[in-house]
Amino acid sequence: MADIQVTCIKKIPRNDPYEGITHLGNSSGKWMRQDVIAWIERKAHTFYTRVDSNRGAIGIINRATGKYLRTYADGQWNDNPLSLPECR
């Protein structure tokens, strides 16, 4: 199992606050959101973001409209991945 830091996202359209992330990535590559969800569910890999020196574990939120990725830090779910820069 790898522990993978996510440092960028792909979001289409980028400036729409209501549309979801399509890809997550770092300097080693990028992965489709659906693949990241499957790896987390199978416990194949863990994913996290780092804001300043704070680590936020990426987890799955189940909604009636589907599964979403969010970070869990400081005892609460938040949308830290949305603040990450665009993957190249």
Account of the 3D structure:
The structure is a single chain. The chain has one domain (2-83). It is built from 1 helix and 8 strands, in the order E-E-E-E-H-E-E-E-E. The protein has one helix at 33-41; strands at residues 2-5, 8-11, 21-26, 29-32, 45-51, 54-63, 66-73, 76-78. Strands 1-5-6-7-8 form a 5-stranded mixed sheet, with helices on one face. A hairpin with a 2-residue loop joins strand 5 and strand 6. It starts with a strand and ends in a 10-residue tail after the last strand.
Rg, nearest Å: 12 Å
- Count of helix runs: 1
Proportion of β residues? over 45%
Number of domains: 1
Amino- and carboxy-terminal Cα gap: 26 Å
What's the shape? globular
Helices and strands, in N-to-C order?
A: EEEEHEEEE
Overall residue-averaged pLDDT value: 87
Spatial arrangement of strands, main beta sheet: 1-5-6-7-8
User: What share of the residues lie within helices?
Assistant: 10-25%
Poorly predicted runs are none
What's the total number of strands? 8
Biggest beta-sheet profile? 5 strands, mixed
Structural class: mainly beta
